Amino acid sequence: MSTLDVEDFIQQNRALAEQVETFRGYWESDKHWEPRREFILRNITEYEFQQLDKLLALSMVWANNVFLGCRYSTELLEKVKEMAEGIVVEDAPVFKTRDEIMKKQQGR
Known about the structure:
Blueprint: H1 3-12, H2 14-21, H3 30-43, H4 52-68, H5 74-83, H6 98-106
Helix pairs in contact: 3-4
C-alpha cells in the first residue's frame, strides 16, 4: 500500500481512520506517527478487534526499531519488517552497533 493508497483507504474508511488516530501517542511526532499509522492501516484488516493490542504492540516494535534502533529477536524483527514492507520512512536514522564502532576505531 503506497502513500496514495493509504490516503485513499483513509478517505473510504473514515470511521476506522479516526479510530486509528486515537492510537497516536502524545510523544509521537508527525515524522514517527505517519509511518506507524501506515503500518497499522496496512495490517488492521488482518486482526480482529480483540487482537488490536497485538497489532499496536507490533507497530511500536517496528517504530522503535526504525526510529530508536531498539533490537528484538530475529523472528520478531522479520515479522514486523514483512508487515512493513513498502513503507517509506524519510530521513530514517542509521544506527551502528558497538562492535561496528569498535572495529572502525581499531582500523585507524
